[in-house]
């Protein structure tokens, strides 16, 4: 019993001695860890923040303006008046790919201000002589609308479009990529992801793409 009491006394004495040091050093340790992580990311060419722990688990990065679990899974999509039938058909197939996941639900129709929507459009952009080795096939992205208060809401009024100046853009893989941006996915360094910056003809979402969508919705 005396040995046990002596052990408790030594333990308490040690705590009194080391605890102030731990409290002093802990913020420095945490700060250094953050610097180390940021530096490591810089060294491998990754831009922080990505998807937090989800990124470490292999998820596709997400657009910084899209906060997880703040948007409803349902989106209403519509085509601008000048979108050719061929482009509409390409986007319809791309939309089916996302709907098959069960994570989001893309429905044809017009949205209200409080609802998520995707406007699908076309444009024509000619690349300059200096850009001859790079073709801009499309563009897209989220636009977050917020209203605070008792009747507040958060909605994504997104856009996704193809550069019809070049026939290479009118592909299902490009439409899937631009819809991914509209839903909040950012570019990925993984060649298995539909969000890889260079079109590879992929028409199925990777495991990382699905993780990111689940993270968001």
Task: Describe the structure in your own words.
This protein is an alpha/beta fold and 217 residues long. It has a domain at 74-216: Collagenase (Catalytic Domain) (3-Layer(aba) Sandwich), CATH 3.40.390. It is built from five helices and six strands; from the N terminus they run H-H-E-H-E-E-E-E-E-H-H. Strands 1, 2, 3, 4, 5 and 6 form a six-stranded mixed beta sheet that branches. Helix 3 links the parallel strand 1 (74-79) and strand 2 (105-108). Helix 3 crosses helix 4 (172-183). The radius of gyration is 24 Å and the shape is globular. The protein starts with a helix and ends with a helix.
Topology:
Layout: H1 2-43, H2 53-56, E1 74-79, H3 85-99, E2 105-108, E3 116-123, E4 138-141, E5 144-147, E6 153-163, H4 172-183, H5 207-216
Parallel strand pairs: 1-2, 1-3, 3-6
Antiparallel strand pairs: 4-6, 5-6
Helix pairs in contact: 3-4
């Amino acid at each position: 019993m005396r040995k046990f009491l002596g052990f408790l006394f030594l333990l308490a004495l040690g705590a009194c001695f080391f605890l102030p040091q731990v409290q002093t050093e802990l913020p420095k340790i945490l700060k250094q860890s953050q610097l180390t992580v940021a530096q490591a990311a810089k060294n491998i060419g990754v831009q922080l923040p990505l998807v937090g722990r989800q990124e470490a688990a292999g998820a596709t990065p997400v657009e910084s303006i899209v906060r997880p679990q703040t948007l409803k899974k349902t989106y209403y999509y519509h085509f601008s008046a000048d979108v050719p039938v061929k482009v509409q058909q390409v986007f319809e197939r791309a939309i089916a790919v996302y709907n098959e996941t069960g994570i989001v639900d893309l429905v044809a129709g017009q949205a209200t201000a409080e609802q998520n929507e995707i406007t699908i459009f076309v444009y024509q952009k000619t690349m300059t002589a200096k850009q001859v080795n790079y073709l801009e096939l499309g563009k897209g992205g989220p636009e977050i609308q917020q209203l605070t208060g008792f009747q507040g809401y958060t909605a994504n009024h997104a856009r996704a479009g193809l550069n019809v100046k070049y026939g290479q853009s009118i592909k299902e893989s490009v439409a899937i990529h631009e819809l991914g941006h509209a839903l909040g996915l950012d570019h990925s360094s993984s060649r298995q992801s539909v969000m890889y910056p260079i079109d590879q003809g992929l028409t199925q979402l990777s495991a990382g793409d699905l993780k990111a969508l689940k993270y968001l919705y």
